[in-house]
Amino acid sequence: MTFNKNTLQDLVISHLGAELQRAEQAAVTAHETATHEENKAENKYDTLGLEAAYLASGQARRVAEIRQNILTWRQLKPRDFSDKRGVELGSIVCLANMDDVHTLLFIGPDGASMKLHHEGHSVQVISANAPLAKATLGKVPGTEITINLGGKLQQFELLWVQ
Predict the structure, then answer these.
(1) pTM over 0.90
(2) Where are the domains of the chain?
(3) pLDDT digits (tens, 9 = 90+) for 70-85
(4) Contact 107, 136 (CB under 8 A)
(5) CA-to-CA distance for 25 and 142, rounded, in angstroms?
(6) Thinking of the domain 92-161, which architecture would CATH place it in?
């Protein structure tokens, strides 16, 4: 099973682009609500306008965050796997749990935790800072990995890496 990392990266960027569009629309709506004449405070207890302004500010920060995530993902240059480097940022990893259930992970920069469907497979995109990613970084196929997930010790075998 071979995956094209650049295609997966393009899918992540496309998903982030769609998320950016939704966030931008939410920011516009929040700004319009915050500045609408009907939301001007009529007395000191009328906080609808203030609440809308806080929401607009939060939405604007979210837009900036997504834009930064897109830039970071565009800068990612996935490399072919090397036993010397082991699993690294941009690696596609296949793990098997104790029940022989396989999980495909695409390890990338922050800001794009999502599930992709590509070529009939489900690939979980996770940040290199996620606990499961941290446990695999630098490892090579055949390595046993034990990690505490959700208060429960779980074991995996690293089957292959691309």
Answers:
(1) no
(2) 5-75, 92-161
(3) 999 999 999 999 999 9
(4) yes
(5) 47
(6) Roll (3.10)
